Amino acid sequence: MPNVCLIEIMVPDVEAARQFYCDKLGFDIRSEAYLPDVLVLEHEGADLILIKTDKPSQLDYPHEATSVLVFEVEDIHLAEKEYKSRGVEFIREIGDAPPGLFTAFRDPWGNVHGLMQIIPRE
After folding, report:
1. In terms of Cα–Cα distance, which of 119, 61, 117 is closest to 89?
2. Which among 20, 75, 76, 73 is positioned nearest to 48, based on CA atoms?
3. Residues 59, 41: Cα–Cα separation, whole Å
4. CA distance 98 to 121
5. In which domain, by residue range, is 29 found?
6. How many helices (H) and strands (E) does the chain have?
7. Cis link prior to 120 (omega < 30° from 0)?
8. Domain stop point among 55, 73, 96
9. Do 60 and 120 sit in the same domain of this protein?
10. What is the pTM of this model?
């Protein structure tokens, strides 16, 4: 099976996306070489690439097919509280999921991402 080598996130405003993904979510910048249309963020395993697009997403999550980028956190309640204090809008309550606890949020352009706290099951 092929490995994931990068993750593209389409955004209509790369500079505003920098503020959201860096200031609110805590990512660091790997490269600004392709600005103003592309910004590369550091991420272990597969970099996140913010790419300028024409319009935001109108996705009706979870009722439409999509891919959701899920970030693992140690304490989902603490992470959600921290992100909410930075203005991140959550669209799903924390609840059980097959590998643990899960919640979801949107970026300002409609892209859906999740937080997951892995809980070993017996």
Report:
1. 61
2. 20
3. 24
4. 9
5. 1-55
6. 2, 8
7. no
8. 55
9. yes
10. 0.90
